[in-house]
Design brief:
Blueprint (H helix, E strand, L loop, with lengths): L14 H9 L6 E5 L2 E3 L7 E3 L5 E5 L11 H23 L9
Antiparallel strand pairs: 1-4, 2-3
Length: 102
């Protein structure tokens, strides 16, 4: 999740949208999950897969950003991307339910 270097966790920062606007590149939502992991006690709960754990990586459809948007449209697009990334994370974690019930 491009939630910035200080968070808060799972809140998409506007920078990725601004970069996509200027570069005309699509944003590709990507996430991963693993069957067994260490989770750091940091603000982002950084995940480090344990040896021999199973992992999965999921990605969604590319999201294209219009070159021109007013403030309301920009915020709407930010929320759309954030929501899609959260949905992908939930989908990935559901493949390893015993690990993510902690």
């Amino acid at each position: 999740m491009p939630d910035g270097p200080r968070g808060p966790r799972h809140v998409l920062k506007a920078g990725i949208i601004a970069i996509a606007q200027k570069s005309r590149a699509a944003i590709l939502p990507v996430t991963f999950a693993c069957s067994r992991a260490w989770r750091l006690k940091s603000w982002d709960r950084f995940t480090l897969p344990k040896p021999f754990s199973k992992t999965v990586a999921l990605y969604g459809e590319p999201i294209f950003i219009p070159a021109e948007m007013d403030e309301a449209a920009f915020e709407s697009k930010r929320q759309e991307i954030e929501q899609r990334m959260l949905e992908l994370e939930t989908e990935a974690e559901a493949l390893f339910p015993q690990e993510h019930k902690l």
